Structures are given as structure tokens and as C-alpha cells.
Amino acid sequence: MAKLVGNEQLRDARGKPLHSLSDINGLDVSAKELIYGRLIPPRLYDMFGIDPETFLGTDGERKVGFIAPAGLGLLRIEVRLNSEDRDPVFFLDLADTHYRQMELAFCIIGDPAAPRFDVDRDSTGRDNCFATLGRNIPEELRAMAAGLFPNQTRRGLKLFAEFFPLFERFVDSLGIEMILAEPLTYDNAIRYEKYGFDYLTGKRLMQEINEGFRPGGALYCRLDGTTPFRVPGQERTVRGRSWAIHDGILDEPWDEIRIYKMVGEHAGINTFPERENEEDQP
Q: What is the third-level CATH fold of 21-202+254-262?
């Protein structure tokens, strides 16, 4: 049963309730694509002249791709303005869990007109798997100077705030009550707090980080200018803290942070209440 006001249980053409991505993926291609196409913010369709029913651009070429294999509870959506584009404008990865939850694995919404920073590549041009296989320091410095967050290759389109309500209503329409995610960076975790998430694991670390960055704390004292990512004053902003953490300022690796949101509920978590106002890129 759907919980959100005005929302209804999602059903197939015969009226059978759909309860998962796996259920939707069993539909014919056109039916499941129309369902999944509603996860893309309408303003993105308008912005790039894409028809939300045919997924064609004004040039007659298809701009939206779906990977939604029958028999599997997986979904990937990519919006590319041109087939040869290196980066999608919109990228979404979702997965069913074994416990009737929805995993929000990735959501990236980038401005194709903005400069690109190759923070996702090592010095030889190979994918560095979110800097786990090596960092591209010169590109990271350029990205940080441009106001981006760690692992962000382009400035965002500021559409996540429009995407997330669509996503939550979609999850609710399947009768699913819990959304799971794994923030890859500190700023992601703080951003998800804003949308009502709580922590399955990692709340202790987030609280310790906040204490550590307060004046006199261990992390505050490490903002000593030894690298461009550890400059005094960075403790005051989410972006500054996130770059310092990306630079390895913690005593433990940023890992195994798991968060969840109950549909229709806001957990009210704020592990950095003193932060200065700053632009929220995505």
C-alpha cells in the first residue's frame, strides 16, 4: 500500500500490483520504459528538448537509455545528448534488495556545458574508481578551485531536489518502505541528511568528525596547510571538510557508511549544525 498522500500502488496493464524493479522489468519494453522515464525530472526533459514519452530529442535521435533486464531487480538510466558524449547528463542506478528495500546506488546529474575535471582518471587516463586506485592531484586542485566537491567531474544542474521526490513517490508506489544508500563522500552523507536519511552505520564517525573539526579538535589542528586540501578555515564548510577527508585527514578510512530513509519520514539528523551556508552543487 502506498503511504504518501495522493500516491497509488503501481500496477501493470491487467491491474496486477507491482512490488519491485524485478516486477517492472518483467513488463514489455515500452511499458517499463514509460514507468522508469518518470524518474527523470520534467525540467531536464524540457531543458534539453527531449520528449518524455518517445525519449527522442529535437534531432530525432534517442537520448534516454534504459538497462532493465527481465528476471533481475536492477535499473540503470542514462541520458546522453549525443551518443559519443563521454558523460551522461543524467545517470541513475537502482537495485532491489533481498529484504524489500530499494537501493539508491548512484544518481549523477551533470551540466554538459560546464568544464570537465578529470578527477576520475589517474595520470595515465585510466579510471581510478573514485580515487581508490590513485588520485589525479592537478585535476582535483582545479576542481576544488572551481567550487566542486570530491569525485565531482562537472558542476551539477541542481536537479537532485526535483529528482528525489519523484524517486520517493516511485518507491512508495511499489509498497516499499525503506530506501538504502551508501554515500561515497562526506558531503554526500551531509546532503542525504538534508533529505531525511538516518544512519545504519557511520553515525558515530560523522559525530566524531564534527567534534574533530571544532576549534582545538584533532582534525582542526591538522588543517595546517601541509597540502592544499588542508587549509585553515576548511572546517567551516561541508566542501572544505569533504576535501580534507578525501585527502586522508581522518584516522580511519571513509568506508562502510550506510544510510536509510523511511518513505514519508524525515529523520531530522544533522551532524554538522554549525556549517556555513554554501551552494549545494547537485
A: Aminopeptidase (3.40.630)
